[in-house]
TrEMBL record:
InterPro entries: Beta-barrel_TonB_sf (IPR036942), CarboxyPept-like_regulatory (IPR008969), Plug_dom (IPR012910), Plug_dom_sf (IPR037066), Secretin/TonB_short_N (IPR011662), TonB-dep_OMP_SusC/RagA (IPR023996), TonB-dep_OMP_SusC/RagA_CS (IPR023997), TonB-dep_rcpt-like (IPR039426)
Membrane topology of the entry: Multi-pass membrane protein
Name under which the protein is recorded: TonB-linked outer membrane protein, SusC/RagA family
SMART domains according to UniProt: STN
């Protein structure tokens, strides 16, 4: 691996050098050239006008177009200017000729001024203005292309060009201009004088419906011509949150997107529900800068992201084909801009994360557990463990009781020692030694700009996270550059490179309640200690009883004690990932209508991990001791007495190539057609291996050796090798036609294919399509609703898909390493039968939407309804028993769903000094399995809703319980209904048919959304996000006595248990019975009494900004300077439906710790 790593680093270095070398001259040239972009320096004496204009073209890049009837090319002119604006030079050249000029991109059109009637009163000098020349920018000076400038009281107006410039002719003064631009506050400008007008617009806060362009990853579509369902989150909304990962910033602010956080190890994202039964392919497709992102999305630096677009229906997402069935998240990174001086941005923040609230865990108190252990000891419950010749560990209390029974301790000594343990809570030690306040640091800087022909973007980022667990850290370095060069008038070249390296250390012994602290199979007793009063590490008997390790080997073996705090200092576990993405794009414009482009991307990810166990670590000492052989006074080490190292490495390489034709044409002022067609190839190769190194000594990994504790075993090799190659081909087309800015019709088609092994040729691909229409009702001549100036209706239908290349269509077997116990011969198990009809899953979506904006943009938003159906879903289908298999994975299931989405954005108060803006998201989603060919387990079926359960007619995350009938007043036993009669026959109750169970509903919300309020006063802005989740259930944790007996893991419900007649009136916790009848715990744990409604409203976070902006005449060195603080995971429940006092998002009681971020953001 050393040579491979060296070769990778050398290749990376060469790429960076080449790219920077190529970019630096352009970068330097941009700085110099931009200073002269709109300036002319010329000394001409009696030059032909034609030569003067050519000289201006060479200096500014502007092309001048005019008719020979208007301008005499051979006219001699004399001109002496230095650093003069183009407008001023044109005024001198064309003065008195009755001409005007209009800027249009890189061209200047010179034309005849229209005739203007004399004013009714006043002199011509005071009232007549031949034309008005100006520029519209944002508050930082960035030109706004496409802004509308209207002259109040007249039909005259203009639209700004790419430089934000406009010209309006034939107007009289005084003048009042109405200036508007999508996403910015409308501004009224009054003018009394002529000249060059500079207008700066202020951006509207969080009005994401007004964004004019949405990105699909293949093209940018004006929102007003989109027929599909899109959600766009702009840079301001994305940066409201502070986090290391980019997708975290979508949580609670994106319409139709639900974050399922029930699994602490990995958050699952749903867009409009779940339409596959295979959890491995249930996630949305993530696209970064036009290509699917293969790998860890956390490698993307959020500070490099400009915006995110979420494609939700078929018209929006079907262009991505067979991977778009679960929705598409399109990430667009930041780019440079043409004609922009170099700009530098810097963002830095520090996040402080509280320690976890361990004392919120519903844990059985130490004293109660001790009493129970004494009771069980008296019943002989622990005798099997005490007499086990494998010497499993027992708890300290049981150990004391054994010593008393053996006469080693008196009853008084035992009682005193046990009573001392009653006041101990090991959570105090965890908070003192294992946990700490987490500190996340984030630094990011970028520089961007451009000239007439080159635009560039460079960024770097550094993240350093010290997690809540002592010994665990995360560091990430990101480097990125994106450059575009207008090589010729028709050819554009784009290059980009992104490099990410992140290093992890995982030296913690683990969080509270992890397996690292278990005493064999028993949970860590709450009265345990990790350190003595002086902070010295104490031992935990995690593998063997201390009575065994104290004497095993008679001193010849290595120390066999486990001390968690010592291990934390000895651990040496690291991993590194290096990700390189390089892309190249060529676009050639055959005309203003037709262009062609070719894009290529190479992605490489090297991931390596290393766990080094010195001979001082318990891992190495335990492994060496278990295989040691003692002969008299000597010991033979079968496992070398040397450090042990586990290593793993993986390499992922992806090649993506796309060719595309673009067509965009407008004619007759009413017709507009935009179309694309293309094909792409994609290959993803993943290979990896892992192995264990026992120092420099060779070991026999195949031989069976006797273990010191009995039995025989081979030496663990920890070896694994995998290699996978996936290939995909696609052809696609998309077109949208708009008539008179009122009617839009769109259609798309795509054919995907892959190397799905073993299927018929006509099953390796799937054709997908979509069609849509939009009607801009507000542009109709009959429309007169001035209070609702914008109204747009959308309708679309089409298909997407899901692909699962992990399933082979050929018969598949799994061969076991060991021999079959009865024949002593090799054996294997068949995993799946041959299925040449295996095909991709298909998701059909119908979507209807209505977009609206009220007068003065006081209220805007959209309402959408959708219906989805997933067919050919992979699920289990019953087979003929003679095949030897009960079921096989086939395309045999269907899922249906529907939903409603509402987005509202309003301005409650909008004055120059104070603004109050609000956004509301409402989502309703319902989906259920409509077909599943494997007969369901109708008898005794219960579910906690945490895994996918394909039960026809119900949500895949269904929560089902046994019917609860209360506690027995005489015994405190839990009771249920058997044949509609109350019963305690648990063996029969747990086999009740589904019709007699309680079907609560889904374990994920069917209604969810948020309300985001932003209050702005002068330079101060305060925003707060409130989320809600409704229409779902969760199962709370409770006491399970058999689990308590076997593992010592007890719930605080133990204190609420039934103990005497009458208790059943105020508790539902069953009585303690020993021995506990079989199935009694199972019935109670999965009974309907343990289910709570999950509905709640949560105050999620709050952010406070103080922003300083450069004024029109300010000489400050920054364009904008912002200080901010952000608090997340407030964990404030404004309302909850359950009466148990539980947080539905954290039913275990352990909530995500609150985090406080402080930062500064500067733009220069």
């Amino acid at each position: 691996m050393g040579f491979a790593a060296m070769r990778f680093n050398l290749m990376l270095l060469l790429l960076c050098v080449c790219l920077v070398s190529a970019a630096l001259p352009a970068f330097a040239g941009n700085i110099m050239f931009f200073q002269h972009t709109d300036k002319v320096t010329l000394s001409a004496d009696q030059w032909p006008l034609r030569e003067v204009l050519k000289a201006m073209n060479r200096q500014t890049g502007y092309y001048f177009f005019y008719s020979a009837d208007l301008v005499n090319n051979n006219e001699k002119v004399t001109l002496h200017v230095k650093e003069a604006a183009v407008e001023n030079v044109l005024q001198q050249l064309l003065k008195g000729k009755g001409l005007i000029w209009v800027f249009n991109g890189n061209t200047v059109i010179i034309k005849k001024a229209p005739p203007v009637a004399a004013p009714a009163s006043g002199t011509l000098r005071d009232s007549l203005l031949t034309f008005l020349n100006g520029q519209v920018t944002d508050i930082s000076g960035t030109p706004l292309a496409g802004a509308t400038v209207l002259v109040d009281g007249t039909p005259k107006g203009a639209t700004t060009n790419e430089q934000g410039r406009f010209v309006i002719d034939g107007i009289t003064r005084p003048i009042t201009l109405q200036v508007s631009y999508a996403g910015y506050l409308k501004q009224q400008v009054r003018l009394n004088e002529t000249g060059n007008v500079q207008i700066r617009l202020q951006k509207e806060i969080l009005d994401i419906t007004s964004v004019s362009v949405v990105a699909t990853g293949y093209q940018a579509i004006p929102r007003e011509r989109a027929t599909g369902s899109f959600v766009k989150l702009d840079n301001e909304l994305l940066n409201r949150k502070v986090s290391t990962g980019i997708l975290d910033r979508l949580d609670g602010v994106a319409s139709g997107v639900l974050f399922d956080k029930r699994d602490a190890a990995s958050t699952r994202i749903q867009i409009r529900g779940l339409y596959t039964l295979t959890s491995a392919i249930a996630q949305p497709l993530v696209v970064v800068d036009n290509f699917p992102y293969e790998g860890d999305i956390n490698d993307i630096n959020p500070n490099d992201v400009e915006n995110i677009t979420i494609l939700k229906d078929a018209a929006a997402a079907s262009i991505w084909g067979a991977k778009a069935g679960n929705g598409v998240i399109v990430i667009t990174t930041k780019k440079g801009r043409y004609d922009q001086a170099p700009r530098v941005s810097f963002n830095s923040n520090v996040t402080v994360i509280n320690k976890p609230e361990l004392f919120r865990l519903p844990q059985m108190p130490a004293s109660d557990l001790i009493d129970l252990e004494e009771f069980l000891f008296s019943k002989g419950y622990y005798n099997s463990a005490i007499n086990d010749r494998r010497y499993p560990p027992v708890t300290p209390v049981v150990d004391l009781l054994v010593r008393e029974r053996n006469g080693q301790l008196s009853a008084a000594e035992t009682k005193a020692a046990i009573d001392k343990l009653r006041s101990i809570d090991v959570r105090n030690d965890f908070l003192k030694y294992i946990y700490r306040q987490g500190i996340n640091q984030q630094y990011a800087a970028n520089v961007s700009g451009g000239s007439k022909k080159v635009k560039y973007f460079f960024s770097t980022g550094y993240d350093k996270n010290s997690t809540n667990l002592v010994g665990n850290t995360y560091q990430r370095i990101t480097l990125r550059t994106d450059n575009t060069w207008q090589a010729t008038r028709k050819l554009q070249v784009q290059t980009g490179i992104q490099y990410t390296q992140h290093d992890d250390t995982n030296n913690s012994t683990g969080p509270y309640n992890s397996n690292a602290y278990k005493l064999g199979t028993r949970a860590l007793p709450p009265y345990s200690r990790l350190a003595d009063d002086n902070g010295n590490p104490l031992t935990l008997d995690t593998r063997y009883a201390d009575t065994y390790t104290d004497t095993a080997g008679h001193g010849l073996l290595l120390d066999w004690k486990y001390r968690p705090l010592q291990e934390m200092a000895l651990n040496d576990k690291t991993s590194r990932a290096q990700v390189l993405i390089a892309n190249l794009g060529l676009q050639y414009n055959f005309s203003n209508t037709i262009s062609a482009e070719v894009k290529y991307q190479y992605q490489r990810a090297d991931r390596n991990s290393r766990a080094y166990y010195s001979t001082q670590t318990f891992f190495a000492r335990d492994l060496i001791n278990r295989y040691s052989q003692i002969h008299g006074d000597s010991v033979t080490y079968i496992v070398p007495n040397a450090p042990v190292t586990d290593r793993s490495a993986s390499l992922q390489q992806g090649h993506m190539l796309r060719g595309q034709l673009n067509f965009n044409h407008t004619w007759a002022g009413k017709h507009q057609l935009a179309a694309i067609a293309g094909a792409e190839l994609r290959q993803l190769h993943t290979a990896g291996n892992s192995y264990r190194d026992y120092g420099n000594t060779a070991v026999d990994l195949l031989r069976y050796y006797p273990l010191f504790t009995g039995r025989t075993a081979t030496i663990p090799s920890n070896t694994d090798i995998d290699d996978r190659l996936d290939r995909f081909t696609s052809a696609y087309a998309n077109a949208a036609y708009t008539y008179d800015n009122r009617y839009t019709f769109s259609a798309s088609a795509r054919k995907d294919a892959s190397n799905l092994f073993g299927v018929r040729a006509n099953r390796k691909g799937v054709p997908l399509w979509s069609a849509g229409a939009a009607w801009k009702i507000s542009n109709e001549r009959f429309y007169r609703a001035g209070w609702l100036p914008y109204l747009n209706l959308r309708l679309s239908y089409g298909s997407g898909g899901n692909v699962n290349n992990a399933i082979a269509a050929l018969a598949t077997i799994y061969k076991y390493d060991a021999s079959f116990q009865f024949t002593n011969l090799p054996f294997a198990t068949m995993l799946n039968v041959a299925n040449p009809e295996l095909r991709w899953e298909k998701v059909n979506t119908l979507n209807a939407g209505l977009d609206f904006t009220f007068k003065n943009n006081r209220l805007s938003g959209s309402i959408e309804y959708y219906h989805k159906q997933s067919v050919d879903v992979i699920g289990l289908e019953a087979l003929d028993p003679t095949t030897g298999l009960g079921a096989a994975l086939t395309n045999s299931a269907d899922i249906k769903g529907r939903g409603v989405e509402v987005q509202l954005y309003g301005k409650a108060i909008n004055t120059s000094a104070f603004q109050w803006q609000s956004s509301l998201l409402f989502n309703y989603v319902h989906y259920a399995v409509s077909r599943y060919l494997l007969p369901p387990l109708t008898n005794g079926f219960v579910s906690d809703g945490e895994t996918i359960i394909p039960l026809p007619g119900y949500n895949p995350y269904l929560l089902v319980s046994y019917n609860w009938a209360g506690l027995d007043p005489a015994t405190g036993d839990p009771r249920g209904y058997l044949n509609k009669s109350i019963s305690t026959d648990y063996a029969a109750l747990i086999k009740n048919p589904l019709a007699e169970q309680v079907i609560h509903g889904p374990a994920l919300p069917t209604y969810f959304g948020n309300v985001l309020n932003t209050f702005s006063w002068r330079n101060i802005s305060l925003s707060a996000n409130i989320t809600y989740r409704l229409g779902y259930y969760f199962r709370r944790n409770t006491i399970a006595y058999n689990t308590l007996f076997a593992s010592g893991a007890g719930h605080s419900d133990y204190q609420q248990r039934w103990q005497q007649p009458g208790d059943e009136k105020h508790t539902n916790v069953p009585s303690l019975v020993y021995p506990n009848p079989a199935y009694r715990d199972l019935f109670y744990t999965y009974s309907s009494i343990t289910v709570e409604k999950g509905d709640h409203v949560r105050w999620e976070d709050v952010r406070l900004n103080y922003t300083l902006k450069k004024g029109m005449n300010s000489r400050t060195f920054f364009r904008q300077l912002q200080f901010y603080t952000y608090i997340t995971n407030l964990n404030i429940l404004i309302w909850k439906a359950n009466k148990a006092g539980l947080d539905p998002d954290f039913p275990s009681g352990l909530r995500t710790p609150r985090a406080f971020a402080f930062g500064i953001k500067a733009d220069f």
